Every structure is written in C-alpha cells, then in structure tokens.
Amino acid sequence: MLMEEDMEQKPCMFHDPLALQAAEKSLYDVIGEKYPPSPGQSSSFGDQFLVDSPENESSYSVGSDYGGSSGSNSGSSADVHWNREVGESKAPFMQENGTMSNGNGSGDGNGVVSSYAGNFVVPNFFSGSDLELQFKRGVEEANKFLPKFSPLVIDLESKNFTAGKKNHDREDDGFEDERSNKQSAVSVDETELSEMFDKLLVCNGRDEKPSCILHYEAPENEVKCSKQNGLANGSNGKKKSRAKKSQGNNNEAVDLRTLLILCAQSISSDDRRTANELLKQIRQHSSPFGDGSQRLAHCFANALEARLAGTGTQIYTALSAEKTSAADMLKAYQAYISACPFKKVAIIFANHSLMHATSSADVIHIVDLGILYGFQWPALIYRLSKRPGGPPKLRITGIELPQGGFRPAERVQETGRRLAKYCERHNVPFEYIAIAKKWENIRIDELKINKGEFVAVNCLFRCKNLLDETVVVSSPRDAVLRLVRQANPNMFMHAIVNGSYNAPFFVTRFREALFHFTALFDMLDANMGREDQMRMKFEKEFYGREVMNVIACEGSERVERPETYKQWQVRNRKAGMKQLPLDPLLMKKLKCKVRGKYHEDFVVDEDGEWLLQGWKGRIVYASSAWVPA
C-alpha cells in the first residue's frame, strides 16, 4: 500500500497515531513554535518514523548512488511534501475533538498522540464521510499558516528541490516545472539528426571534399546579413568595439563597463548598499535584447546579483541541469558556426591533422576527452569513407563527466549510438567505448588501447573545466595530461580557450572576464541580428552560464578556469609532450576561407606552433598538435 501512487485519494491511510505525531511536529515547525514534549515521551520517536519510511529510503539511495538527481527524486519528494500538508491539516482537528472528549492526557509515553489515541483514534467515532469533511476543513485552516511563495525555487541544491508538486505559480519564469525532470530518457529523432548532419556535410558536386573540410559555403542570406551588419555598424563593426557606452532614457551616456567594475569592487569590500545602488543603475541601462554592451551588462549584472545574494552555485547548478536535445544543440551549433569560425576552424585543424597522419593506418583509435554530442566526427567519418582502398576501422572512446540521475552515462552513450548509425550509412567499421567518469580518475586500462592501432587523443576547449593546483594539491589538469602521455598517442590534438580570468582574487578575475566576454558579445552583435533566437539562446545558455560560474561561484564549485596558451604549453611540455609544426598550406587555406566567408575583424594567426583565433586583436582560442617527446 505504501508504494501506491494514488495515496492522495486515500486519507484514511493516515489515521495512525505515529503519523499524527509526525504531522503535529511538522505543523509546529511551520508556525515557528517548539513541539511540546511529553514527560514520558521517547526521544526522536516521530523522527524515527519519518526516516524509516519507504519514500525516504528511496530518496536516500538515489542521492547516494547517483549524486541526488532532482528528476529521480521528484516523486518521493512530492509525496513527503504532501504527507506534511496532510499532517498539518489534521493536527487542529485532532486537538479540538480530543480536548472535548478527554481533557487530560494519559502520558503513557506517546507524547501528544497518547492523549487522543485512546478515546479518538481507536474508537473511530466518526464515519468515513465525517472524517473526510473534517479533513478538508483542516486543510483550509492549515493553509493559512503556509507561505504564499515556494522557498524551493531558491534552495536548488536541497534534496527536496523537486518537492514543488503543488506550486504552480512560479515567480521566476526561468525555472521549468520540476515535475518535468522525472523523465529519465530523452527521445531523439535519429532521422532528423542524420539529415542535419548531412547539412553540415553538403558537398559542392564533389564527394571527395565535404563542405566542413575547408569547403563550407554559407547560405546566401547569412552572408548577406553578415555583410549588412558589418556595414551598418560603421567600418565593419569598429564602432561596436566602443559600444560600452549606452544611451539611457534621459539621453546621457552611461559607461556600463565602469559601473560593472565599481559594483564588483563594492561587492568585494562587502559594501552592499553601494553595490545595490550600482546594480540598480546597471539594470536601468542594460537589456538582454539590446546591443552587445547592453546584453553583456545584463549578463554580468545577473552574476553580480547572484554573488551578492549567495545563490550563484544554486543558479549555475539549475542552468547546467537543463537537458537540451542533440537536435536543438545541432541547430544552435549550425547557427554559431555560420556566424563565427572559432569552433569550425579548430575542428578543421584537428581533423586535417588527423587525416594527414592516418593516411595508411588500418585501425584508428580516437580518445575524445569531452566528446559531448560528437559533432566533430561526422566530417571525419565521411572523409574516411572516401579513402582510396576502403575505409579503416574507427574506434572512438568517448569520455564525458557523469550526469546526475539514474543514467550517468546516458548522453555519452547516445552519442555513440548516433555515430554508429552514421558510420553504418557510410560503411565505416566502427567501435565505440563510453566512459562517464571524472577524467583524473580514469585508468589507462579503461581506454582499451590495442597494439598496432593509430592512437589519437582529442580535447577541444574542455580542459578549462578541470580544477588546478589552487584548489586541489594534486592538480587534475596535470593528472589528465599524465594519462595522455601514458597512453603514448601518435598524436594529441589540443584546443583551448585563451583566457586569464582564473585568478583567485575576485576583482582581478572579474576584470579579465569582462574583457574576454566583451569581445564575444561584440562578435555576436556584429554577425547576428538582435532578434535572432539562436543568438539569444547562445548568450543565455552558454555565455550566461559561464559568466555565472566565473563571477558567482568560488572554490571547487567554480569550474570555468581557462588559462592562456602559453600556460598550457608549459603544462604539456612538463607532461612529456612536444609540439608539431603547423602545416603552411593549411594555415593559408584557413586564413583565406575566414577572410572570404566571415567578418573581416576575425583574426587567424600563428605563434610558434600555435594556431590562434580572435576578434579585433584579442586572442580567444588556440589550437596545436602534440606528440610524445
């Protein structure tokens, strides 16, 4: 009976003295009064009843095994919350009738319950209909003591986060209804994904040169839109680089960048009054729908406000927990690479280096650190299928961090199934190994490297999420690089986010993050329309989430920790790796394609053996190829 889901239709199930005692204690907690103990009451009797219930056992096992998934606990949490409401409604009714029937409690060891159990619960004077009527009246009385809002919207990390079953009026539209998180699996239309993959691989009449390998032709309307945006902003966006000054309603110029820095300094010195005043000014002149500087200010104001309120970790956790389907991610990815060459150039560099080195290999084993949705590999699979003499066998070990919930490896396994179907379509022998684990804890034998195969380790833009020696004495970054060296790969493709906002001091980190994201928001403003839904999605779910983590989180909870390419060069060499020289022909083609298809303020340059990418002179990404020394 306890496992039935229609318990709400059975109020008679709660006619138990133990349940009544727990309910009375819960009501006293709600109204802020201390539960009156009885002289003969045994210690923690009601608490023991709550802890030993089957619902709480289920919630505890989920939290201990899978990191406390909000989705998997929603059902039990909602039931516990409902039981509490039932108990609260019954307590006044029991007290009223118990006092009339027996004014003096017996004090037999059961506390408050014992004074009513003998004369009320056991004889059961009322019929079922009377009990239901009194029960409903008690619910109305108890609801007067409940708050009008749900504190669970704020306490996102609580185990009872999903207990908002009866709260339908959310004040914050950014949070989805928790009940939707009960879905344990996401259904993806594989046909739609295959078609979208092919759109990324549109060939211009020559099968041997897919578009994503240096022959991508942007749609005419996208190119035209990009050119118009560049010209409208004055000399291809040069005016936008000075867009930090926004016009307010009273036509006075407001330096949003200075206001943001002053607000960060006030928060750092715990001057909350000044910080709130500055935040108010920033809010007046910022908007998620304005120009680049206004969107940037809105994004950073959200992070500063969260840091001031101490809710940065909860908000970041909620943003990260939102599940996005592979189809939606692919659409956003398409829109992004149509406007910005950063990720595309990095993928072309890695795939070209791999194709050049594996021209005679029979088995290629790619260890992908941070495979995510695997958007990098359809282009390579297509090229391998066209190789003279037949395609080689492709083995991919996809590594990702575990997800919360019952299926920690669900995403990385879905990626493997998608890639397997794509390989089947193009007749490429394929084997996939999924690993959902913290990278620094992976052992070399888990990679399942075989003798005689070409081993390539690939990591694009994900090393920034590893903790460093400022947080953990044994640096996870160095541990992962040692694992790469231990695998003794034939090639290590490494692309990084070039950033300096990993300082332990808040104001210094804030300044560097502001400069870095100013370039990114300005880049999107010059290449995408303000009403573009994909742009708004990208700014909110990607840039906004990163800014929230950098500004509002500290310690091990701050996982956005980029370093400069010079710092990564030192780490890689320390791990026993050496760089490969850049291919001059590839560099020439990349520069030509970026100049011809993208905004002229995009930068493609080289420094030693590093391929550098940036916007208006600021280097944002860097790529290089390594081999064991």
UniProtKB/TrEMBL annotation:
Instruction: Kindly state which keywords UniProt assigns to this record, in alphabetical order.
Output: Nucleus, Transcription, Transcription regulation
Where's it found, cell-wise?
Answer: Nucleus
Question: InterPro entries given for it?
Answer: TF_GRAS
Q: Which PROSITE patterns match?
A: GRAS
Positions of short motif VHIID: 364-368
Q: Name one Pfam family in it.
A: GRAS
Q: Where is this region: VHIID?
A: 333-398
Q: Which GO terms describe its cellular component?
A: nucleus
Which residues fall in a compositionally biased region of kind Basic and acidic residues?
166-181
Q: Segment Leucine repeat II (LRII): which positions?
A: 414-446
Where do the segments described as Disordered lie?
A: 31-80, 164-189, 226-249
- UniProt region (SAW), positions on chain: 552-627
Q: Where is the composition biased (Polar residues)?
A: 226-236
Chief site of localization? nucleus
Q: Region annotation Leucine repeat I (LRI): residue ranges?
A: 254-314
Q: What family is it from?
A: Belongs to the GRAS family.
What is this protein's name? Uncharacterized protein
Taxonomic lineage of the native organism:
Eukaryota, Viridiplantae, Streptophyta, Embryophyta, Tracheophyta
